[in-house]
């Protein structure tokens, strides 16, 4: 077992095992081409793997073919993983796979990015994005949450009804520089992937660069709609922070 751990401790030897897993029964020359290393160096690494019984060889004429032997790896799993952590690791692996699938799905959906510069500080911009009363002034909706990771948030109407036109969850919260939330309609299908909005707040001297990224949009039509909405809301936000008052006319009502 010590020889196995020693063999696995080297990145090049792990790479050799990966290559044999992809295509078993390779010659030394074939492995060298994949590794871009000399035959002497590859031979030394393969000798360590053979000593650990992780690689076995078979002669075919003048060639020597190298094969992956998974038995020692299975013994490690049985001794060090299965009896202690298998159920928990299986659950973690499932969560990881689901997260990767979600990221792949999001990568295929439209994304909108908007950058605006505001004469302010990151603390003031963060406060304007997360304070319920201030959001009501420039957004026409009140954003309600405690803004802790995992907490829900609601985009509530300001008519006193408490009706939310958008809901979501706080994914990241690092005041005063980064806030990430999911966005969805209150009646959205629970199985559907919500869109995600990231606020990046970066200071540049006496001004702040606010970058809003809206990901995982349903289609180009939704991207066009949110593009107009963000431009209006962020312009109103800039006016409120810099002058103390939002724009004299609600920008989302201006005909395009």
How does this model look, in words?
This protein has helices spanning 2-8, 11-22, 28-35, 39-51, 71-107, 122-130, 132-139, 220-243; strands spanning 55-60, 63-68, 112-118, 141-144, 152-157, 164-174, 178-183, 195-204, 207-215. It is elongated, with a radius of gyration of 28 Å. It has eight helices and nine strands. The chain has 256 residues and is α+β, with helices and mostly antiparallel strands. The longest helix is centred in the middle third of the chain and has 37 residues, at 71-107. The mean pLDDT is 86. The strands form two sheets. It has a seven-stranded antiparallel sheet with strand order 3-9-8-7-6-5-4. It has a two-stranded antiparallel ribbon with strand order 1-2. Helix content is 46%, strand content 25%.
Q: In short, what is this structure?
A:
By secondary structure, the chain is of the alpha+beta class.
Number of helices: 8
What percentage of residues falls in helices of 4 or more residues? 40-55%
Q: Count the strands?
A: 9
- What is the average of the pLDDT values? 86
The neighbouring-strand order within the major sheet is: 3-9-8-7-6-5-4
Largest β sheet strand count, sense and barrel closure: 7 strands, antiparallel
Terminal CA distance reads 71 Å
Rg, alpha carbons: 28 Å
In what range is the share of β-strand residues? 25-35%
Question: Could you give the order of the helices and strands?
Answer: HHHHEEHEHHEEEEEEH
Judging from the principal axes of the Cα atoms, what is the shape?
elongated
Low-confidence stretches: none
Label the structural class: alpha+beta
GO molecular function: DNA-binding transcription factor activity
Protein name: Metalloregulator ArsR/SmtB family transcription factor
Domain HTH arsR-type: 1-88
Family: Belongs to the AHA1 family.
